[in-house]
Amino acid sequence: MSADSRLVLRSILMIAAAIVISALIYQLSGYSAVDAVSGFIQGAITGPGALTSTIRWAIPLALVGASVVLSFRAGYFNVGAQGQMYLGAIAAAAVAPIAPGPGLLKIAVALICAVVAGTVWSLIAAWLKTVTGADEVLTTLMLNFIGTLFLQYVTNGPMRDLAGSGQVAAAPPLAASVRITDSSGVSPANVILVIVVLALVWLLVNRTTFGLASTIVGRNAQVAARQGVNSRAVIWSTFGISGALAGLAGALEILGPTGRLIQGFSPSIGFTGIVVALVAGLTIVGVAFAAFFFGALAAAIQFLPIVTNLPSSALDILQGLIALLITARIRVKLKAKPPRPHVSAEPAAAAPIPVAEVSPAGELRESLDPRSN
Question: What's the rounded Cα separation, in Å, for the pair 294 and 175?
């Protein structure tokens, strides 16, 4: 079994464990675990419009999850997908109404602008990383806050809908001609687009020199440097593509189910996308399945209080447990005592030097440095 397959299998086991623990918590809290499971299935799959709602949420989660996979596999923890998504949404909402040509051309231009905006926003962190050595976790988190504040500014200022009620800060609704989907958020166009994008990212990760180089950098940057891999180029490329995917996710939200730019829309997509990537074992194929699962959770949250007495926050327990179990990585290793050293008249060869390596999933491994032999 390959390393990626083991990671996916481990994620499945952790999800199953989280479901069992959540069911016990519901039961001990005075709710019916059976009703909770039944309500989840109805809200995510079998209920009226449930499957459509699941796919609606799976689409942005798949794109953001893929963006996280790219950066995490390279060993750079870009957690700024939320801000990159917001910048892509702002660009799409600003360009779509004024772009020339028919509706399809307007949509294409808006999507391209969203991709560029997400890329540029992400490359700020890449520049700070390569030029100043700033930690990418801190910079991307701060860029999330700045992106959120910028969205708040434009929806309350230059892009505000003056004809609106004022209850929610938002831009004017987009015309139907520049929308990819209706309020359901699902159409053949955006589903096919996401499938094509995921296929291209899979090829990029698994069948290109860039994918190999980024994986080597993620496992051991020093080894990558000795093999001639340009780590700076990997950083810029990885952050740029990750930002592009997140920006595209933001555009599909605005040109799809949201239908307009709204302050604070889809506030949890960026961080849930990180969990999606981890559950997927940092594989693109795994992202497709994990995004569908978390899309089902998002759909069930809206349906669960209707058919059961459980509050919608009950599924937050399940999601939190999944994130906790996936990231905990608790292992117990039993090692035999090393044999006593053999005394010889000849000088002993130098012992191999252990070298720490970080796997794409973030696990610390040890290998032997051949230079020590």
Answer: 30
Give yes or no for a contact between 98 and 80, defined as CB atoms under 8 angstroms apart: no
Per residue of the chain (373 residues), give pLDDT as tens. Answer: 677 677 778 888 888 899 899 989 988 988 888 888 888 888 899 888 999 999 999 999 999 999 999 999 999 999 999 999 999 999 999 999 999 999 999 999 999 999 999 999 999 999 999 999 999 999 999 999 999 999 999 999 999 998 877 778 999 999 999 999 999 999 999 999 999 999 999 999 999 999 999 999 988 888 888 888 999 999 999 999 999 999 999 999 999 999 999 999 999 999 999 999 999 989 999 999 999 999 999 998 877 877 777 887 788 888 889 888 887 754 433 344 444 444 444 444 444 444 444 444 444 444 444 444 4
Dig out the tokens for 27 from the structure: 């039961």
CB count, 10 Å around CB of 25? 16
Domain with residues 3-166+181-330, CATH architecture: Orthogonal Bundle (1.10)
As beta bridge partners, residue 366 has: 356
CA neighbours within 13 Å on the CB side: how many for 338? Answer: 3
DSSP annotation of 176 reads G
Q: Which run of H or of E encompasses 353?
A: strand 353-358
